[in-house]
Amino acid sequence: MMHLENKKVGIIGTGKMGQSLLRGIIRAGKAKPANIYASDVYEPALQALKSELGINVSTDNFDTVDNSDLIILAVKPQILRNVLRGFADHINENKLIISIAAGVPASTIEEELHEDTRVIRVMPNIAATVGEAASAVSAGKNASAEDAEVAMEIFSSMGSAALVHEHLMDAVTGVSGSGPAYIFPIIEAMADGGVLEGLDRESAQKLAAQTVLGAAKMVLETKKHPAELKDMVTSPAGTTIHGVHALEKNGVRAAFTDAVMASAKRSREMGK
């Protein structure tokens, strides 16, 4: 396996996601700051990152591309083509391109750069900003299994990552890309219930959010089926089974499935 710490890493675009990647890579010890290059049009933000993290920064993408073995594209999808065209002549088969631009297929990047370009497409979600992203990784036609492992290593440093086929990225959008927005109202609703029953707002929200976090961690760490974990909590004629019954009565399970399908459908429409 290729070790990331032996590679020079470039990041083009230092917005929220780009900064989250930088901090995650450094925090996890995946690359030394001296081996990391970042570029963006906004110089004050770059200088702040240089002071904070000790990385190399530039407003010129050529500096990042020329000095890096792998380049992460963390720019907005609508400007990606122009960014790619700006440094296309500086890309060769020795450089790995990792794109987190939502909705942009690996084939589009390959066409803009070079037909032999090694491209990995990744879809992280907004939880990257707190180091708990759910990321899906897919390999372009020229990328190797080793390239995919490198991407998995990077994005595992800021949460969890799963390797999927690119044609399933719309499904990923429905589950994890849009998913945080499904959970925030749930946390709010649970806190509302607590307030209705007499808890103060701050305590209710903290308890609700930690409950969601803890339940998710149990699924990830025990690797048990969610139904099995649910049964561990629901004693006969107890409080929990009454709450679960209320959820089922109100169609919560079907509502979440429908939300995933609606988001995935919209993602397919936008990609056409």
Radius of gyration: 21 Å
Q: In DSSP terms, counting alpha (H) and pi (I) runs of 4 or more, how many helices?
A: 12
Q: State the CATH topology of the largest domain.
A: Rossmann fold
Assign the CATH class of the largest domain.
Alpha Beta
Major beta sheet, specifics?
Answer: 8 strands, mixed
Q: What is the CATH architecture assignment of the largest domain?
A: 3-Layer(aba) Sandwich
Strand content: 5-15%
> What is the CATH homologous superfamily assignment of the largest domain?
NAD(P)-binding Rossmann-like Domain
H and E string: EHEHEHEHEHEEHEHHHHHH
Structural class: alpha/beta
Spatial order of the strands in the main sheet? 3-2-1-4-5-6-7-8
The total domain count is 2
What shape does the CA trace take? elongated
Query: Helix content range of the residues, please?
Result: 40-55%
Assembly type of the chains comes to: single chain
Average predicted confidence as pLDDT:
94
- Uncertain segments of ≥5 residues (pLDDT<50)? none
What is the number of E strands?
A: 8
Give the end-to-end Cα distance, rounded to a whole number of Å.
36 Å
